[in-house]
Design brief:
With 273 residues, the protein is mainly beta. It contains two helices and 18 strands. The two termini are 33 Å apart.
Amino acid sequence: MKWNNSNFTISLLLLGLSFSFWSCKNDNVIVERNWQLVWEDEFDGPAGQSPDPQKWTYDIGTDWGNAQLEYDTDRPENVSLDGQGNLAIIAKRESYAGSAFTSARITTQGLFDQAYGRFEARIKMPWGPGIWPAFWLLGSDIESIGWPQCGEIDIMEYRGQQPNLIHGTIHGPGYSQSEAITKSYGFENDRFDVAFHVFAVEWVEEYIDFYVDDVLYQRISPGDVPGEWVYDHPFYIILNVAVGGNFVGFPTDQTPFPQSMLVDWVRVYKEIN
């Protein structure tokens, strides 16, 4: 999910596909690290309960610079526990606050952030043209220095019309919007909306590794970016389901509503010696 992505076009998607389609060969060596859990949410609780307010807050509103169509709310109808150990972020087709759709966007801004570590979530996707779920990190200094100088790490983005493919991306000064550094990972005979999968980054000073189900499919190092490497300070977590926007286009008559992204858990680790 881009903070401001007015030029993020299908051409970028095709570029990403040309680099990595269907979990292709990866020559990066996985470094075994000693990770210690420092923050988590298992989303246990009764159906209809809102996310833990000590861990999550809400971005309420619409567009966010991406031409999205939904109005993001803090209502349980759009974001709540499902009573089966999952958080459900639910996009609905309904008239609300001048928008034709509603959904939710929750963050840990002001509650939790961290520089470096392993950030992971186990998620089951929705499906349908125009649906845009994401699990991502944003630099905590965005209010003082702005985007993209603050940096952005998109651990997982997904176009609902392509249920067998996800994208991992970073944005920073000199490589944002259509110039972002990105790569895709997908299945030949499976889809991300039929089962849960674990999406993660392992972020250290020297690079950021992107994983799906513990398969490393992308490593980005300072030498890979054409601008400043800004991944040296705390970032906070965002989970959301957008409807429409530049990355996915409009929903169609084939897009069913409501749509739910189910999150089994979110966990953050730091490296210990």
